[in-house]
Amino acid sequence: MKRAGALVLLWTTLLLIPGRNCDICPAVKEDVNIFLTGTPDDYVKKVSQYQRNPVILANAEKLKNCIDKKLTAEDKENALSVLEKIYSSDFC
């Protein structure tokens, strides 16, 4: 998997460190799913629920476009597969 994919997995895994309140899992799952499989417009719309700063929204769109260019469909499926294992663990 490419570096970008590995960074996405590392970021998500760090959010799910054992011992944390796992109420965040459904929100993280939805956000990451949109990030990996949605369109740039879908992702920016999701980010805009939390942040209305135009600079942040522009960066979210750039990040999503970068991920779409760098990760293959297989990379995205692999990332989602790993995340499903994390979500279904006893720690989450």
TrEMBL record:
Database matches in CDD domains: Secretoglobin (cd00633)
Presence of the UniProt keyword Signal in the record: yes
Primary site of residence: secreted
Superkingdom as given in the UniProt entry: Eukaryota
Cellular compartments annotated: Secreted
Stored Pfam families: Uteroglobin
Cytoplasm found in the keyword field: no
InterPro entries: CH1-like (IPR006178), Secretoglobin (IPR016126), Secretoglobin_Domain_sf (IPR053723), Secretoglobin_sf (IPR035960)
Residues of the signal peptide: 1-22
UniProt KW keywords: Secreted, Signal
PANTHER family according to UniProt: ABPA10-RELATED
Membership in a protein family: Belongs to the secretoglobin family.
Protein name per UniProt: Major allergen I polypeptide chain 1-like
Gene coding for it: LOC103547699
